[in-house]
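Collaborator request, handled under Task 6.
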Amino acid sequence: MGTAAVLACAGALWGNHLAHTGSVGVTLSKASGPAVRTACANLIKALPAEVEGGHRRGVVGTDPEVKQRAAAWGSPATILRCGVNQPPEITVGGPDYTPDANRYANMGDTAFVNWLIQEHGNSVTYTTTDRAVYVEITVPFDTALERQEASNALVDLAPAIVKNIPNKAGQFVDDQIV
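Structure tokens returned to the collaborator:
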């Protein structure tokens, strides 16, 4: 094989590698203070290197706190955003409050995390409903089977959330009586 062919092959492999491991652009809502920033930074540090077999990727964005409040895995990327606004669907008395129409799931390791489930065209977004700081995870999917399996990412991420983001009563998983 000639040098040009070897370089072309190496370039193709590198391009494929970057497409699967390069940084992911993330947009954040504004954090509401130092407590949110601290909780999110602690969560981001504690997150796993892999989620559902996808390797952790870098994040970029216009918000200077993006690396302390967001993480991504795999390609297409599963994206976690910390310190997001309370979903209007769970704001009691708000115009978008629809408790009967919302879907919720309880998942976690040693403690449960309650999630609001919102399906979009080719992704599903899970937002914590029981944490002092809201955490949102968007999981992309291409097929009906992948849509059904999207919640598997929560199994990988819930343990870090319960240990680093207190519930609305201010308790961490270690504070709770089992």
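The cover message to the collaborator said: "Helices lie at 3-21, 34-46, 66-69, 144-149, 152-164. The longest strand covers residues 112-119. Please let us know whether this matches your experimental observations."
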